[in-house]
Design goal:
The chain is an alpha+beta fold. It is built from two helices and nine strands, in the order αβαββββββββ. The strands form two sheets. Strands 2-1-6-7-8-9 form a six-stranded antiparallel beta sheet, with no helix packed on it.
């Protein structure tokens, strides 16, 4: 059995570290400018902590928006706790980074998507690749539509 570099897992760890750093900054300093986040996560992940009525209503995945009102944002090495408002009903959620499926900041057209274990396995010598959405700006500074960058073309 030959040793190989697991780029897929290394990339996932780096992307989750980025999410942790961004959320830690927001916890310390608040959301800057127009920034806000859509976080989609697996509600069935064993470490997710949400109210029973939320897991009943969203039995698989849920997207939360961190924008106008949130409270008690506590960021740790494994995940984050946040209180969000659901129709004038504040609820505290704990979301481990491993449960996150997508993390998007539409104000700057940035997004991360994590592959899940449920998807078909790729051959052992090819790690799953992620797609990242990055904004482009024209010479005049106007924002253009985001491009999806796929790393598949760099595979052997």
């Amino acid at each position: 059995m030959s040793r190989s570099i697991d780029y897929g897992n290394l990339m996932h760890r780096a992307m989750r570290s980025l999410i942790q750093e961004v959320l830690a900054d927001v916890a310390a300093n608040g959301l800057p400018g127009e920034h806000h986040f859509f976080v989609t996560f697996d509600t069935m992940h064993p470490d997710v902590e949400i109210a029973d009525w939320l897991s009943d209503r969203y039995p698989g995945e849920m997207t939360v928006v961190i924008q106008h009102w949130f409270d008690n944002l506590d960021v740790t090495n494994d995940g984050f706790t946040i209180t969000l408002n659901f129709g004038d009903n504040p609820e505290t959620l704990y979301i481990p980074y491993d449960a996150i499926k997508t993390f998007v900041d539409p104000s700057v057209e940035f997004g991360l998507r994590f592959e899940t274990q449920d998807e078909p396995e790729e051959p052992e010598d090819e790690a799953p690749m992620d797609e990242m959405v990055e904004p482009e700006q024209s010479a005049s500074g106007d924002r253009k539509a985001a491009d999806v960058v796929s790393l598949d073309k760099f595979r052997k």
